[in-house]
Specification:
heterodimer; A: 156 residues; alpha+beta; five-stranded antiparallel beta sheet; elongated; B: 527 residues; mainly alpha; two-stranded antiparallel sheet; 25 helices; 2 strands; 1% strand
């Protein structure tokens, strides 16, 4: 059989085998479209820009300052954590970007590293690329109850 | 659903898949070995790590520096092997798995283009396997002698075939050799020059020379270009389109539209200053200029998304309107990604990945075919040489398989020591055992000839790996960053040791001698 003939016959036999491939294509494209949409459906601060194709976005370019502090059982005073000495620079950048998974795990790890810690707190204050100040964020992790709590900036 | 079948399962020029898969896989390998490896110092710092996925977080140890390096070395190895062995699916799939593991094991790697690279590799694993022989070594059909001259010319024009006046076969071979030499010289010049320093004019000159060389070159081909089928090709086009569309959507906020974000990205880099000055002379303020650039970026990205969606059908319906639109899209894509490199935004090799994609998808197939000749010509030329190792006896095949395999296993095993990186020992052990097992299995199942090809490819890959790591600045980057991190931790003795190791691999003009002296004094003071 010549080349063109072989191609025609392979076209006929391949249409049935395309079903599986078509299902894969549809699933793949749906995931590709839905994954970035997840970012836009967030109600809270849209800080986690992963998988949303937001390269060079205005959110990622915000100028933020962060601090982590903790309160131990024996002292009521808050003790500030030295992020520069204890965490690699990229983790500090991710904290500045407010990446939720990093913030949560870091707060949890403070309790695991020192059992005397009662509460660990994350604070962030940002300015947009236009220089406008955004409301500050405060998140506390209670080591005893293992719960997170958003704290109003008015609270002590 | 006929359009769906036609769009995803229709034919496309095989040279597109060949060019893109080879170039992309080589870039992935070099990216892993020379760029990503240099950033591995930040892994394992105080044992803190957060993986991209919660299920993976439980599996990845906090001290994961060696694991990360081993995964990167392995990813590069599989990518390079896939390039040399005809883009075999299981090798590309292996590269996809290791590349995905490399970025997903820690949020320290949050570059979105690494996620994008994984998607490209996944689509490539679904492509048809192409070889140099399939793409460029088809038997030619000479035009019948009895045809009259006018009829033959019409037929040649329709098939983009060379005219007889283009020269005899040996002359055309010389033309091919000159074309390949010119293009390789251009690539070498671009690699040697720092384009940002050499200036946009030099870059434009080199690009112009490459375009003229491609335009003038007439490959020896009478048959229509070979076509391939595989839904991965169209699926990748859709993936790129989705990425561009969302990237443009992400910029639809006032901070971007008013130009504040773009201005902060470019910062004080002088690349765009002449343009802003020229706009100023026309009465357009700097703020308005930034805003114009910002809005134009959004329009370009939406335009490129549309172009990529249309690109897979251009080989089936080569009507002139589409061809012109895709040429324009290619020009815009080149300008956008070369512009990003000139501005100096820190996005690794993303621009180069996108330039390769742009050339493979947006250019007409005849042009892509000419560019593909750069990859196929050396292999086909080598094969045609009398007494070439690719056309020898079974006994010689067995000898090549044995000797080549032994060298590959020794080089891969020895790389654990030679590379002087924490993850190299793990990689060297696994890679050497894996290479040995692969050659044995291939020899037993496919014979000595195939085993010889595997041995040759493994040897070349192993040597390229060692050369890429030892000749680039990746080890210097790794150890100097490690030293800086130790300084931040207050571990001065460890920092001194890391900097001293970095100094052994320091490229010209990048010595850390002063830092080492300062650290020595500080270490002495603390003792």
């Amino acid at each position: 059989m010549d080349r063109a003939g072989q191609q025609r016959s392979s076209n006929l036999s391949s249409s049935s085998s395309h079903r599986l491939a078509n299902a894969f294509i549809v699933m793949f494209l749906l995931v590709q479209i839905a994954l970035p949409l997840r970012y836009y459906r967030q109600d809270e601060a849209r800080d986690d820009e992963r998988f949303a194709w937001r390269m060079f976005s205005s959110v990622g370019r915000r100028d933020c300052k962060v601090a982590v502090r903790e309160q131990t059982e024996d002292q009521d005073r808050w003790h500030r954590v030295s992020l520069r000495h204890q965490y690699q620079g990229t983790w500090r950048t991710l904290l500045e970007r407010g990446r939720p998974l990093v913030v949560h795990k870091l707060l949890r790890s403070r309790c695991e590293m020192n059992p005397a810690v009662r509460v660990a707190e994350y604070q962030r204050a940002c300015k947009t690329t236009a220089g406008q100040k955004l409301p500050p964020t405060r998140l506390q992790y209670n080591c005893t109850t293992q719960t997170y709590r958003n704290v109003n900036s008015d609270d002590p | 659903m006929k359009w769906f079948e036609h769009y995803f399962h229709g034919p496309f020029a095989a040279c597109r898949a060949h060019l893109l898969s080879r170039v992309f896989l080589i870039i992935v390998a070099l990216d892993a070995w020379t760029i990503m490896l240099g950033h591995s110092a930040k892994y394992g710092y105080h044992g803190f790590n957060v993986a991209h996925f919660a299920w993976l977080d439980a599996w990845i140890p906090g001290d994961n520096r060696a694991l990360y390096q081993a995964v990167l070395l392995g990813c590069g190895l599989l990518s390079m092997l896939a390039t040399l062995l005809g883009g075999q699916r299981f090798l590309v799939a292996g590269a996809f798995v290791l590349h995905s593991l490399s970025w997903s094991m820690s949020m320290l790697d949050s570059y979105q283009h690494h996620y994008f690279t994984s998607l490209v590799l996944l689509c490539m694993a679904l492509w048809p396997t192409t070889t140099a022989t399939l793409v460029h070594d088809q038997p030619s059909t000479p035009a019948p002698e009895s045809c009259d001259r006018k009829k033959r010319k019409k037929s040649r024009d329709r098939r983009h075939a060379p005219s007889p006046s283009a020269g005899s076969r040996p002359t055309r071979r010389w033309a091919t050799a000159i074309y390949v030499a010119v293009m390789l010289a251009i690539v070498a010049t671009i690699v040697e020059l720092d384009i940002a320093e050499a200036g946009p004019l030099t870059a434009a000159g080199l690009l112009g020379t490459a375009m003229i060389a491609t335009w003038l070159y007439r490959p020896h081909r009478i048959d229509p270009l070979p076509q391939a089928r595989g839904f991965g090709f169209s699926l990748l086009a859709c993936t790129v389109a989705i990425m561009y569309a969302y990237t443009a959507t992400a910029k639809l906020d006032w901070d971007w539209l008013e130009g504040h974000t773009l201005a902060s990205l470019v910062g004080k880099k002088p690349t765009l200053e002449p343009v802003l000055t020229a706009l100023g002379e026309l009465g357009i303020s700097t703020e308005t200029g930034w805003s114009m650039f910002a809005v134009a970026t959004i329009a370009i990205e939406f335009g490129l998304a549309t172009a990529y969606l249309l690109a897979p059908i251009q080989d089936r319906r080569p009507f002139s309107g589409l061809r012109v639109a895709l040429w324009a899209a290619w020009g815009v894509a080149m300008a956008l990604h070369i512009g990003i490199e000139l501005v100096g935004l820190r996005i690794g090799w993303f621009s180069y990945y996108m330039l390769a994609l742009g050339c493979a998808y947006l250019l007409p197939m005849q042009t892509v075919d000419k560019l593909t000749r750069l990859l196929t010509w050396p292999r086909l030329g080598w094969r045609k040489l009398p007494g070439s190792p690719l056309s020898t006896s079974a006994r010689a095949d067995a000898m090549v398989a044995f000797v080549g395999g032994s060298i590959a296993v020794l080089v891969l095993g020895g790389s654990g020591t030679w590379l002087d990186l924490p993850g190299a020992h793990l990689f060297g052990l696994v890679a050497a055992l894996g290479a040995l097992a692969c050659i044995a299995v291939v020899w037993q199942r496919r014979g000595a000839r195939r085993a010889a090809q595997w041995s040759g490819a493994l040897t070349l890959t192993a040597c390229t790996l060692v050369a890429a790591v030892t000749l680039s600045s990746t080890r210097f980057d790794f150890y100097r960053r490690l030293g800086q991190d130790y300084v931040n931790q207050g571990e001065l003795a460890a920092a001194l040791e890391a900097y001293e190791t970095a100094e052994r691999y320091a490229p010209a003009g990048a010595s850390r001698r002063e830092t080492i002296e300062r650290l020595r004094l500080r270490v002495r003071d603390t003792q």
